[in-house]
Amino acid sequence: MPMYEYYCQPCNETFTKLRPMSAASDPYECECGAVAQKVLTAAVVSIAGQYPEMESAEAMPSGGGCACGRGSCGCGGGGMGGLN
């Protein structure tokens, strides 16, 4: 079950609740009796240790040193844009 963050205006409190995804859009009643609003939050997922091949600097794309950071615009030499 995902954890959702809520804000209760009368209490001026933010709290989290574990709820099923099917209840994600349902209102949640605060302990004070007011309906708390769901706060839009971003999920952070850690993959540390799950993909050891991604932990080395060689596995990470370097971008070719060009301004766009991807190396595919032709200025980095080695991307699709340069057609090497």
Unreliable sequence segments = none
Average pLDDT number: 73
Compute the CA-based radius of gyration: 23 Å
Shape: elongated
Q: How many helices does DSSP assign?
A: 0
Biggest β-sheet, characterized? Answer: 4 strands, antiparallel
Describe, in short, the structure shown.
The chain is mostly beta strands. Helices cover 0% and strands 23% of the residues.
Question: Mind explaining what this structure looks like?
Answer:
The protein has 84 residues and is an all-beta fold. The chain has a domain at 3-39. Helices cover 0% and strands 23% of the residues. The chain contains no helices and 4 strands. The chain has strands spanning 3-8, 13-18, 28-29, 35-39. A 4-stranded antiparallel β-sheet has the order 2-1-4-3, with no helix packed on it. The radius of gyration is 23 Å and the shape is elongated. The mean pLDDT is 73.
Q: Would you spell out the secondary-structure blueprint of this structure?
A:
Elements: E1 3-8, E2 13-18, E3 28-29, E4 35-39
Structure keywords:
single chain; mainly beta; 4 strands; elongated; four-stranded antiparallel sheet
